[in-house]
Amino acid sequence: MTKKINAFPEGFLWGGAIAANQSEGAYLTDGKGLTTVDLLPTGENRFPIMLGSLPSFSPMEGEYYPSHEAIDFYHRFKEDIALFAEMGFKTLRVSISWARIFPNGDDNKPNEAGLQFYDDLFNELKKNDIEPLVTLAHFDVPVHLVKEYGSWKNRELIGFFEKYAKTVFSRYKNKVKYWLTFNEINMLLHLPYIGAGLVFSEGEDKQQVKYQAAHHQLVASALAVKAAHEIIPDVKVGCMLAAGMTYPYSSNPDDVMDAMDKDRESFFFIDVQSRGEYPSYAKRFFKDNNIVVKTEEEDEKLLKDYTVDYIGFSYYSSRVTSTDPKVQEDTTSGNIFGSITNPYLKTSEWGWTIDPKGFRITANQLYDRYQKPLFVVENGLGAVDEPDAQGEINDDYRIVYLRQHLKEMQEAINDGVDIIGYTSWGPIDIVSASTGEMKKRYGYIYVDRDNKGNGTLQRSKKQSFYWYKKVIESNGENLD
């Protein structure tokens, strides 16, 4: 007899997630300023810039910048939202581009055209009964703040961010009740330019700089939580972790300890945002590595008093670590975090380990640790989708991936994990954050665009579109 999977909770928020810098395009339209992602080209210079080792303060000749046009969501959002509504979305995760609101980041007054765009976007979502879930900072810093202040190295950014947060909270207080502060905040340690607009000088202590910038972001996050609760009735503000637990390669205690340390590297951020203080293991790490984080007197109280209401997280894969140099030679490709190959699991076309069971384990791990509601705000499969002779895309491989992960998410809920909702990444094809490619597609909706910016931008439904519609209609009962 087949075990019947329980229904997802009533009111579960099904939907999808996109980011301004990967979808909107219109990169200097209506007064928007230049942002960090607008300076990420495709090709060999992309990763050196993302790592903060190649300074770039303006677009370079001869380079292609995919964010400049992206999929033109800025002009086509009504068409796209209609498709999301057809699937039955209950929520859509989007981000606000900071530079649309304050083009330079330190402007005295906000840009009204930018504010109006998001008014129109949220109105369209509400018209279609879709709840906005809005990220304040999704890999997006005004370039002026990088050039003139050193970005999040500089404590002054806390004030600029607080002003930005208060501006959008006040403007959209009747339209948005779910917010996230920083997208995948732990990415600061791995891609510091993406995560915090950091550019390193020769000889600079990178660890010192990254953790000082992290402190500034953590204080800014607390101030955003404070402002949101003062301005918006019944608001829910979350943090956001690039999650995925680390398995020890063996039962060697050294491997187990190394796996714990790798997980703590990411948990550090959420420990502060959720528990309100620096964990003891971080204090030891700072001491052992001669890192001195400069703080102000009020920081400790701010962090303690203004913790987040829920934990948002992305889950794409798990990771494996080992202290054995021979084992370390066998690694997967394409994984930003880096991982030893897991012999029990398959990988995606981009080398990401496919581990549905790890999704359940990670959800339990986070809930056991924080005892706060979770929101799965990213999960999906990047793959090459090729239309057939009739122009249709039968992406059964994506359906299989998502079905397996949703079953494990249901098991996590049965385990007692409180999960608010699920927004898969990205419900429509968008520019890849890591590689800048369009061929790395996640969507239920195909966008006619290639890696060089060619194509009509026409939207068309993939097979997964109809599958996800059935999932939402049945509140997760029908995953076939």
TrEMBL record:
GO terms for cellular component: cytosol. The active site is at residue 378. The keyword Ligase does not apply. GO terms for molecular function: beta-glucosidase activity. InterPro entries: GH, GH_1_N_CS, Glyco_hydro_1, Glyco_hydro_1_AS. Keywords: Glycosidase, Hydrolase. It comes from the Bacteria. GO terms for biological process: carbohydrate catabolic process. Belongs to the glycosyl hydrolase 1 family. NCBIfam families: PRK09593.1, PRK09852.1. PANTHER family: 6-PHOSPHO-BETA-GLUCOSIDASE ASCB-RELATED, GLYCOSYL HYDROLASE. This is 6-phospho-beta-glucosidase. The lineage of its organism: Bacteria, Bacillati, Bacillota, Bacilli, Bacillales.
